[in-house]
Amino acid sequence: MNLDQLLDTLVVPGFTRLGPTLRSRTKGWPADPAPDALRGQQIAVTGATSGLGEATARMLSDLGAHVHLIVRDQVKGRRVANELAGPATVWRCDVSDLDSVRSVAADILAAGARFEGLIHNAGAMPPERTESAQGHEMTMALHLLGPVLLTELLLPALPGADVVFVTSGGMYLQRLRADDPEYLAEKYAGATAYARSKRAQVELLELLQERWQGHGIRVSATHPGWAATPGVTESLPAFDRVMKPLLRTPEQGADTTLWLLATDASVPAAKLWHDRQPRPIARGKLRAATPAQRQRMLAWVLQSVDLPETPYAVGS
Questions:
Q1: Does residue 13 or residue 158 have the better pLDDT?
Q2: Enclosing H/E stretch for 311
């Protein structure tokens, strides 16, 4: 067992800032992207006004990308855009609101934008069960329904693009709950709901890759480890206080997402990535979902966002 595998097995040191610090010194650490690796590319990031999203936007811009910030708060979005090294465009969208997703997708297509990358980063962990504008449990709406709908509607603008779901290591603690995607069958817990929605993202990677591969899209998920962000401080204050000295910086948390978008290496699709390496989607007794469970979850997603079982054809 090498150092990377040991850190992954031990979980805690691998998820903290020790993970990238130690791994980046090993022989097998993948090369950093070239300084101008994204020159001339256009990449969209949801939830780009703070934390991992803001760090991702800055790092993409530093590598030459034209960054499209898809955000709820346009004032905050413009602040970030004005501070980026290169060109940026701000689009208003509440990703949990399917009507808002449809509206921004129409605006983007009307503007003729073309993206080499779409990063689904927007996230939240409500302490109480909250519903989206369409009545769906909020974490599922924000982390799964909205991103799937946005990607599908933007397919004409995503030929050959990378689509990345920023997930969470917390998903390892939950099974796929295709039997209760709206979290109605038991007492609600915010952290559990968050982890379930992140588990769903990862479990559907292969099915979404199959659905969108006709457009040349590569679907991936990255998990940032434990990073110091406003969301962690607000939603998990006790965890934040205890772990603060070991939490990753937002830049360390966003590193693998950036690397996937900018690397010259040929990397496989439909994988979960952490610290520039593919990782298992399940650990220990919490096994991965069955094919039937995954199909059931995808069917619920498509029905919830009013998409057909067959994806839109290339050129449509």
A1: 158
A2: none
Q: What is the helix (H) or strand (E) element at residue 182, kind and residue range? A: none
pLDDT tens-digit map of 268-286:
999 999 999 999 999 877 7
Q: Which two tokens mark 195? A: 């982890």
Catalytic residue among 172, 183, 188, 194: 194
Read out DSSP for 3-17? Answer: HHHHHHHH-HHHHST
- Which tokens is 38 given? 């994204």
Q: What is the pLDDT of residues 59-70, one digit of tens each?
A: 999 999 999 999
Check: pTM over 0.70? Answer yes or no. Answer: yes
Q: E strand or H helix at 55, and its extent?
A: helix 51-62
Q: Are 170 and 194 within 8 A, CB to CB?
A: yes
Average pLDDT, the chain: 94
Task: Determine the longest span between alpha carbons in the chain, in angstroms.
Answer: 52
For residues 301 and 147, what is the distance between their CA atoms, to the nearest angstrom? Answer: 11
If DSSP codes are grouped into helix, strand and coil, which group holds residue 204?
Answer: coil
Residue 13 forms beta bridges with which residues?
Answer: none
Burial (CB count <10 Å: 0-12, 13-18, 19+), residue 86 = middle
Q: Is the Cβ–Cβ distance between 251 and 59 less than 8 Å? A: yes
Alpha-carbon 49 to chain mean position:
15
Separation of alpha carbons 209 and 221, rounded Å:
11
Is 194 considered catalytic here?
yes
54: tokens are 């803001």
Nearest partner of 260 among 239, 277, 246, judged by Cα? 277
What CA–CA distance (Å, rounded) separates 37 from 175? 37
Q: Tokens in use for 30?
A: 């993948």
The answer to whether the CB of 257 falls within 8 A of the CB of 193 is no
Closest alpha carbon to 197 in 274, 301, 44: 301
Range 51-75 average pLDDT: 98
- Close Cβ partners of 301 (under 8 Å, ≥ 6 residues apart): 144, 145, 148, 204, 307
Euclidean distance between CA atoms 69 and 88, whole angstroms: 7
